[in-house]
Amino acid sequence: MRIAVTGASGLIGSALCLALEQSGYQVLKLVRRAASNDQELQWHPIDGIKDLTKLENLDAVVHLAGAGVGDHRWSVEYKREIRDSRVQGTLTLSKALASVSHKPEVLISASAIGWYGDTGNNQVDESTGAGSGFLADVVSDWEQAADPARLAGIRVVHPRTGLVLSPKGGALAKMLPLFRFGLGSPLGKGDQYWSFISISDEVRAICYLIDKKEISGPVNLTAPNSVNNRYVSQVLGRILKRPVAPIGVPAPLMKLVLGEFSQEVLGSSRVLPAVLMRNGFRFDHPTIEQALLSVVK
Q: 161-202, pLDDT tens digit by residue?
């Protein structure tokens, strides 16, 4: 089986490529720099792909590329980069896949639970409409950008990924140093729900969606047991055997440091993986205790 992956050097992409290669799949990595071997193909999210012949006879494509939403403060310029890297990149790739003679059977085109916006205490699933806010608007356009592939008859799946737990990147990697030194605390009031997934369950779910031919459209990649931020902090403190401050980092301070992105950190996201559960997918780490224990050593 021949699978192409964009964002192959990212947190999810690197773990996915390793798992695919260990399972015997042939992986073609789409990279921004010049290709260094036959297993790489240079592409640019805006300028496109010059050598389309390498996209012939693929079985699947997993599109994960995009600027990290928490990597920089949200200036006007960086918000544009977040949007363009996703929307324009997906449009470029989906048009390229639609143009080749032997099209892949499936395009797994990354998405995010930012689609739902701030859900408060309300549980949502894939049947819930789009929320409001910058990320919700970006995700809506991001998913629509895969329409050329859809119209060309390619099965398109949008894994709406939650908070991926890994010590190698994402929110947990930023939290761990503070918690290891006993300086951990909730964020804001700590009552906002975090919809999480372990990195290994994330990879397993993507592989599952590649093979599950009857699934298309949005699929929430979150564990089935969302918990609030205060509880996440308490569990992490117990695992590391370190104290956790009872009072959270004040919201005004977070707004000062993070700017507009603080709205996403302090917002609540209680997302249920209804499609995965309905189709029989089994999480290795369905609870926050299991998920954190799987990645925190």
A: 999 999 999 899 989 999 999 999 999 999 999 999 999 999
- Which residue type is seen at 184? G
Please state which architecture CATH assigns to domain 2-295. 3-Layer(aba) Sandwich (3.40)
* φ and ψ of 249, to 5 deg: -65, 125
- DSSP for 90-122, please give it: HHHHHHHHHHSSS--SEEEE-EEGGGG---TT-
Question: Residue 258 pLDDT more than 90?
Answer: no
* Bridge partners of residue 6, in order along the sequence: 30, 63
What's the pLDDT tens digit per position in 192-240? 999 999 999 999 999 999 999 999 999 999 999 999 999 999 999 999 9
> Cβ distance 193 to 119 under 8 Å?
yes
Question: Where do the domains of the chain lie?
Answer: 2-295
3-state SS class at 230: helix
Residue 61 pLDDT grade (very low, low, confident, very high; cuts 50, 70, 90): very high
Q: Whole-angstrom Cα distance, residue 272 to residue 128?
A: 11
Measure the CA–CA gap between 296 and 172, rounded to whole angstroms.
Answer: 9
Other beta carbons less than 10 A from residue 72's beta carbon: 15
Give the separation between CA 13 and CA 276, rounded to whole angstroms.
Answer: 20
- Which run of H or E residues covers position 240? helix 229-240
